[in-house]
Amino acid sequence: MAAAVTAVRGRLVWFRDDPFLVDRDEAFAYEEDGLLICEDGVITAAGDFQALRERLPEGVEPVHYPRHVITPGFVDTHTHYVQTGIIAAFGAQLIDWLDHYTYVEEQRFSDADHARDVASSFCDELLRNGTTTALTFCAVHPQSVDALFEEATRRNLRLAAGKVLMDRNAPDGLLDTASSGYEDSKALLEKWHGNGRNLYAITPRFAPTSTPEQLEAAGALWREHPEALMHTHVSENTGEISWVRSLFPDRHGYLDVYDHYGLLGPGAVLAHGVHLTGRERGRCAETGTAVAHCPTSNLFLGSGLFRVHDAKDPRHPMQVGLGTDIGAGTSFSLLATMNEAYKVAKLSSYPLDSRKAFFLATLGGARAMGIDDKVGSLEPGHEADFVVLDPGATPLLARRTARAADIDELLFVLAVLGDDRAVRATYVAGALAHDRDAVPTGGDGPCPGTPPGVRDGSGA
Ligand code: GUN
Ligand code: ZN
To answer: Which pLDDT score is estimated for 444?
Structure first.
């Protein structure tokens, strides 16, 4: 059978390496008039349109997005799908916010219908925002995990997720035990990891809500299944850090709790890390442990300012991705998240340039999750997940991007002014999965799922 071919034309932007660490031009790939060819969901060519056009199979016309920027689909390295409904909850810092809003909402996920409803809306929001890969917490209830993976599978997203492990310091309705948490996680991991594009993440909530026995069991499960990811929170809030010290007096700080139970290493993603010490950052770098930088959440909860340039210190650079941290975070948009990351960096006098910001939101996130051989890049061989960004999405964006002197400035303006409105289209494994301008009901207009290569995407 002939391969299913998708081709798009526009300004291609992606990364070959980490611009925090290698020469900026070596790390960055840009084609002003680029062509991306995908076959059976995989990228087979990315480069100059004129040079590559003869590679297009007979009869395939690329969808042309003039002036638009096409980047790898965004990678959200930390979020909570179960908190979609409590985004924008007023007034509290981390521990009070958990008690008053989060733990109340998460108890509703014992109801599989509620879980399916929220999972569906969450996956749609990802696509509307150009996010094609996310690492997300579920709730403690196994049915919350099934609901998410079922919805992700329907959309062919590449999601990593897991059942939350928590066996103390939370309402009874949210508690498992060390052994039930282990057994349920193992069964879910065996059911979902590598099933389609789904990946399983072993997910202890954070040190305060797990007993030493539960952390021990989580470490044992990860040793049995090193192919899975490991996802938790660390050093987000100073009150939380003091609490961890009192709960684990024998450990040398917060990170050492996870280290002690074998929960650091490649594939481990720790959310926040705002207050990690230099020694702790060094230990993350040494073990291949990644941090998800969640600026909108850190500002919203008043947690503190993550120092991305310290995390990328060339003497011990860590893997860093960006996380929306819904629902403490305030936007599903990785563009809006880059905007806040820029401001947070600026408060420690570090100008986070647009290449670095887009790297964190694409290849950096994929590296943090250990799946950069699969996603986060337009390099041939990668899965064909990409997003088409519209520099004229709003009157203000159109006015401002018209003055951009080069691609760096254009990307910067998109990050600072952009959000879901700037996402013209999202493609998943080579198929159009979100079309901003689709006519929703019945008419003649394009609709999601229309085979690619049949129309001009310019909107002109
Ligand atoms: N630490 C433990 N649980 C949570 C959570 O749900 N959100 C955030 N932001 N931090 C946490
Ligand atoms: Zn979180």
So the answer is: 52
**Structure-model confidence comparison of residues 444 and 31, the more confident one:** 31
Please give the average per-residue pLDDT across 16-22, as a whole number: 98
- Among candidate residues 355, 209, 221, 231, the one with its CA nearest the CA of residue 290: 231
Which residues on neighbouring strands pair with residue 48, listed in sequence order?
34
Residues, the chain: 460
Q: Report residue 48 as tokens.
A: 């100059």
Going from the Cα of 326 to the center of ligand 1, the distance in angstroms, rounded, reads: 10
Query: In sequence order, which residues have a C-beta less than 8 Å from that of residue 1 and are 6 or more positions away?
Result: none
Extract long-range pairs of 243-248: CB within 8 Å, 24+ residues apart. Answer: 243/95, 243/208, 244/207, 244/208, 247/207, 247/208, 248/207, 248/212
Task: Tell me the pLDDT tens digit for each residue of 128-151.
Answer: 999 999 999 999 999 999 999 999
What the chain holds in terms of domains, given with CATH numbers, is 5-73+378-435 (2.30.40.10), 74-369 (3.20.20.140)
Of 94, 83, 60, nearest in space to 301 by CA: 94
Please name which of 102, 183, 191, 113 lies closest in space to residue 149, comparing C-alpha atoms.
191
Span from the CA of 159 to the centroid of ligand 1 (angstroms): 19
- What's the CA-to-centroid distance between 305 and ligand 1, angstroms? 16
Full-model pTM = 0.95
Alpha-carbon distance of 34 to 296, in angstroms, equals: 33
Distance CA 327, CA 305 (A): 18
Distance 233 CA to ligand 1 centre (A): 7
Among the atoms of ligand 1, which is closest to the Cα of residue 328? 9
Counting ligands in written order, which one lies closest to the CA of residue 296? 1
Contact 197, 186 (CB under 8 A): no
Q: CB count, 10 Å around CB of 313?
A: 15
Q: Which pLDDT band holds residue 452 (cuts at 50, 70, 90)? A: very low
- Ligand 1 pocket residues where CB is under 6 Å: 80, 94, 98, 102, 205-206, 233, 236, 297, 325, 328
What residues pair up with 74 in beta bridges, in sequence order? 131
Evaluate whether 255 touches 283 at the Cβ level (below 8 Å). Answer: yes
* Strand 386-389 to 63-72 pairing: antiparallel
